[in-house]
Amino acid sequence: MNQGITFGSPIAIALCVDASIKWENLKIEKDSSGGKTTIRLIGRFQSEHVEYLKMQLQGNGPLLVLDLEEVTLVDVEVVGFLRACESEGVEILHCSPYIREWMLREGQR
What we know:
By secondary structure, the protein is an alpha/beta fold. The protein has one domain: STAS domain (Transcription Regulator spoIIAA, 2-Layer Sandwich), CATH 3.30.750.24.
């Protein structure tokens, strides 16, 4: 069943399809199996998506994975969010070199 969800701004309109959320510029797929939850991000991951993703991470058990293989763009708030996730034990897979470098630089500030 599809339902529209508005998250405050016209860009943040989502469609719920099973365990998948799609905004105009970001798609989130969630898969849970064997006590492990993987959240796969596709597209542009920007600050307006962070609060929703935080909600998705809550209550999913200790084994959380963010798969960034198909992330094409992030902003500084997302970089801070990713750093916080890693420090809390969330595994980040397939992080592009430019995002990883940015995360390292922000950690040095």
